[in-house]
Write a structure and sequence with these properties.
The protein contains 5 helices and 5 strands; from the N terminus they run ββααβααββα. The chain is α+β, with helices and mostly antiparallel strands and 139 residues long. The chain has a 3-stranded antiparallel sheet. The protein has a two-stranded antiparallel ribbon with strand order 1-2.
Amino acid sequence: MVVDGKEEADGGSVDRLFHALADATRRDILRRCVRGELSVSRLAVAYPMSFAAVQKHVTVLERAGLVTKERRGREQLVRTDPDAVGRARQALDELESAWRARVDRMSGLLTEDAVGTGDSGAPAHDENTDENTTEGPDG
């Protein structure tokens, strides 16, 4: 992630995190594994895709640090990393903070500009028009 021209020191882990979360199947795998560890073969039954495709989704999640895999016998068990959601939240909080600061700076500049030009933001009042007259269109 690049913020204010500086790339993140951890080499793109936030990019991998959000790339992994961008796919609905991977989000669903993550939700299923939050409830408890599941084998890749058990996960594969739930999706209309090949076992290999589900393995690839799990690999993307693992590279992003969202899940861990542990081999037990012939099965690979997938478990959600509870700290991963915290990392995603922290990244979003940092983005929100950066954008709020930008909006605040823009608001401050607009206020300074309005004060500098004497524009109060209120509609201009034409002194030649009396809004309280009861005269009709004929004068």
